[in-house]
Amino acid sequence: MQSTGSRRGMPEMADTPAPAAPSAPPSAEELPLRPLRHHLALTIYWLANTLMWGVLLNIGVQSRLGDWFAETEKGYYLGLLGFSGAIIGTVAQIVAGAFSDRSVNRWGRRRPYMVVGSAVTIPALLLLGGSRSFWPFAGALMLVQLSTNVALGPFSALLPDTVNPREHGKASGFMGVARLAGDTGGLLLAGVLLSASAAVKRAGAAAVVAFHDQRMLLLSWIMSSFTVVALVLSCLTLKEQPLRRRPAASVRQIILGSFALKLHGNRDFYWLCLSRAVTNIGFYMFLGVLLFFFQDTLKDPAPEFAAVLIILVATVAAVATSIPSGTLSDRIGRRPMLFTAQFVMAAGALLFVLAQGRSLAIVAAIPAGFAYGIFTAVEWAFACNLLPPGESARYLGIWNASAVLPQALALPLGGVLGSAVAARHPGLGWRLDFALAAGCCLLGAYFLVHVRERARDAARG
Q1: Which of 166, 458, 461 is nearest to 333 (CA)?
Q2: What range defines the domain where residue 137 resides?
Q3: Residue 306 lies in a domain
């Protein structure tokens, strides 16, 4: 995101001023406390999105790359997909969010973008599932990145749009559980459907590839169907208050203004984004090479099953802490809980470095899962409390970029480093990736020191 300095050193657009923030509905502080059904309704579409990426990121993409490339090559192609998808997703989410902030559609600001994005996602998923070689697969995956983020940017703003800040931690906890459930469901789907039987493996590499061809298409139909159901339920359940008036701004001004970084008054928000981004580099580096770690380093006889088992154990631990920690953060504050999560996540990653077999990896997954549950529940609530009024979707697009853009660094860094080291020392590169993941968690904790928590972030008493 490029910008030029103003007289006060704050980044602004060079030749086009950012359009004025739209005239937003009443302040979130005026909203009533929401019943349980509202918090559950917010999670439906998020669950579908995380299920889809749980299939693709955890095993789906790695499995297909394993069909087409050797150990010394697949890390590079994983990096290419990660970098391209992260850039496309980030731009789409920020721009779509900025347009939704200014939408005067009578159906609401966010839901029309959810419909359009999902309508493109469905055929893109089917194209991906039907691909029989790398480049068609890569093109379909990029289209999925584009369309899902057009929907996800505006959708993310429904939480601050409809929930009182006193309940942001509670709502974020439910969203965290939905994310974990989606990741787990996607992982299980991919693990069960893409794990070739012993008979298929004995038939040779061509049989395994043909098996994955058929099962990937089935997965795409399942993901598409779930997306449609979640979209319909979300749009019928969640009600929005449309804007009455849209500020005068051209399409060009809105697009360029989407990337104007207004640091004045928002420094805490950007420090939090940086902390989250660095921590997520470690997370995606870990997730991106987990299957390779079991395949090439531990020589596990069932690497897909082992990867599913590890993430399942971590997810169960995370679910146990997500909602309680989100609710607790409404009372005692966000920052101390994020610090705790980042340090424990680092410790878990270091245990993976030392693992000599599946057993220690399972032990390491438990504290890492506890920490991740706290992190996912609290981080989003913290960000929502720091949003400037009237531009929540655009800023949440920037916020979500701190989860998407790390893929552009984590997958190339982890994949390229792992394959490069494996060329001389087979399997060692994936251990080094886990050590770097631990370092990223600690660096994220350092950046969090610079974030000041607002007094209204915690509803004490």
Answers
A1: 458
A2: 36-243+251-457
A3: yes
Q: What is the DSSP letter of 259?
A: T
3 occurs within a structural domain: no
Q: What are phi and psi of 225, to 5 degrees?
A: -65, -45
Instruction: Kindly report the CATH number assigned to the domain that includes residue 142.
Output: 1.20.1250.20
The count of structural domains within the chain is: 1
Q: What DSSP element (H or E) covers 11?
A: strand 11-12
Number of H helices, E strands in the chain: 16, 2
Residue 70 counted as domain residue: yes
Separation CA 400–CA 113 (nearest Å):
16
pLDDT at res. 246:
64
71 part of a folded domain: yes
The closest of 327, 236, 326 to 41, measured between CA atoms, is: 236
301, with CB counted inside 10 A (0-12, 13-18, 19+), is: exposed
For the chain, 461 residues long, the average pLDDT of each consecutive 10-residue run is 36 43 55 74 88 82 82 78 84 85 79 91 92 90 93 85 79 82 81 71 73 83 92 85 67 66 78 91 79 78 81 85 82 86 90 82 87 86 80 79 76 70 70 86 92 59 34
